[in-house]
Amino acid sequence: MLTGGCPLAHELVQRWSFAHLAAEFGDDALPVHCTPRGVRSVRRVYGDADEGCIRERTFADFAASSGDGENAYLQVMLRWARGRGQIESRRLGPVLSADLERVDWRWLESACDATGDGGFEACQLWASHGGVSTPCHFDGSTNFVAQLRGRKHFLLLPPSESFKLYPHPVGHPRDNFSLCDLAAPDTATFPAVARARGWVCTLEPGDVLFLPRYWWHYVHQDDAAETASLNFWCAGGRRLGLVERLSVGGISDLPGVAAAFVGAGCAEAVAAELRQHLTEAPLRYASESDEAAAEAMLAMDDRLAVRCLHAARAAEVVARAVVGADGGRLLAALAAGGDARWPPESGARALVERLRRELAEAVDDGRVSVRALLRLLSRDGRLHPGLAAPFPEAYVSAERGDIG
User: Fold this and answer.
1) Helix H segments across 236-301?
2) Any idea where the domains of the chain sit in the sequence?
3) Which helix (H) or strand (E) holds 234?
4) pTM (2 d.p.)
């Protein structure tokens, strides 16, 4: 964390009061996350109105909304990269445009380069009346958080803690969010979360937090009249090959993933064979010693932890692509060794062997076995019978990727 004199957004700390922003945004309609007064957790993706929703408001309406029966958290994209070095900005008045030029963009470009994650990708404003929190999640891009008003408290957990935090299944609208509420953890349902370890820090106005991609964070804001910060995102780093591509984007082409792993025209037959084996295979786990050893190894190497996170997500994509809703059951069966009696020359065996080869190659040096990785990603019924509540197909989101 860079305290006090970081030049990134230092000149906006005194300027960007709610009164100033309300006057300069004028009648612009801005996206605001709204939750019922008793719901302080802003989940950012909403399938149920009882959790919250996203409304368009002027900044002045948002600024006046404290005490109106809802919690409000404003999220506005201000500037972003469109590719080939082209930078676009939200249509702003002359004062806010000039304000943005007070940001030390040269410092940011140098800082982004130093991370190895490429140049500038996007800048967005977050503002609230305080008291709200964001559930524990990770982001796929590195970013710098510049605090302008009020205070934000961060609980930061490295990638090595990923499997202790029980991510939502891949493909779920919140698949980069923990299933466990870290504000009041249910250790009976999520026992591994009790072993998770991280750091706590508080951002004061003028402070900047460097937040690497794939680091988990839970954020809570002090009760205050005004709380505001700017996020500056770096472009994504280099790809890690097939496994990362599946981890990040494979869920958008499940038929293509299935065909790639079992051969065009064979996917349905292999899926039927797998489902038959899954009906027969008991899901009993052996000793947990390999699981504990894998956790210890991940704690020593963040790069290995990131590779394992991608490998686990890719395994979920492949399993879902081939057997659909039974994908979690398939991975749980593999973690338990339930495939040991499957016919050696079958399509199911060929799929499992290829998946294990891909995962072993992704994990790279063998310090974490594929068996241990499968156990970590399917632990405590996370995938089967499944810990995530059903989510409606129609939902509302204003996530960072929805630019334009």
Assistant:
1) 242-249, 254-262, 267-280, 289-299
2) 10-158+198-238, 242-386
3) strand 223-234
4) 0.93
